[in-house]
Design goal:
The protein has one domain (about 5-175): START domain (Alpha-D-Glucose-1,6-Bisphosphate, Chain A, domain 4). The chain has five helices and seven strands, in the order E-E-H-H-E-H-E-E-E-E-H-H. It has helices at about 25-30, 35, 70-75, 130-155, 160-175; strands at about 5-10, 10-20, 50-55, 80-90, 95-100, 105-115, 120-125. It has a seven-stranded antiparallel β-sheet with strand order 1-2-7-6-5-4-3. Helix 4 crosses helix 5. The chain is globular and about 40 Å long. The two termini are about 30 Å apart.
Length: about 180
Amino acid sequence: MDDYGVVLESGAVRFERLLPGPVERVWSYLTESEKRGQWLASGAFDLRVGGRTEMLFKHSDLTDETPPEVYRNVHENGVRSTGTITRYEPPRIIAFTWGGCDESESEVEFELVPKGGKVLLVLTHRKLASKAEMTSVSGGWHMHLGLLDGVLSGNPRRGFWSRFKALDADYAARYAGLPEPGQN
C-alpha cells in the first residue's frame, strides 16, 4: 500500500493505512482526546451527529524538532480547529467539518474496516479550497498517520518537521499539474 495520499476529485484527497487492530482500539485513538493527542491533536468531541469537535494542534507535544518558521505558532502555542460531527457510526465511521485553522471549512471522514487482526483506515478530506491547501493537508495527514501507526505499533516516534518539509515538496510536485479546485 502506497503511503502517499491520492487525489479523488478536485479538492479531495484520500489516505489508506493498514494499522494494528482491533478496530475498537483504533477507534479510541480517533475519538478519545488523550489518545488522539498522541498523534494528531487533543480536544473534546461530542460524539453524536451534530456534536461539536474541538482540537488543539500543538506540535511541540508530538516532536522535539525545531519547526519551520511558518509553523512556529502551531508548534509552540497551538492552533484550535472546531467543527461539527456529520456522520457517526461507532466504531466504523466518524466524519466532521474541519475549520478554524485559517482555511475554509472542509470535511474529514475516517472509516475503519477490520482486516483480520489489522484495521484498514481510510481517511478522506474534502472541500479543500486550493492546491496549496491540498498540499499542506496531504503532507500533514501523511505525517500524522505515520505517528498513529507508530503509536499503535509501539514504535518510537519518528521525526516530524524534518520529514514534513520533504513530504510538502513531494505533494507539491504531485499536485503541480492539477487545476485549482473549482476550476475546469
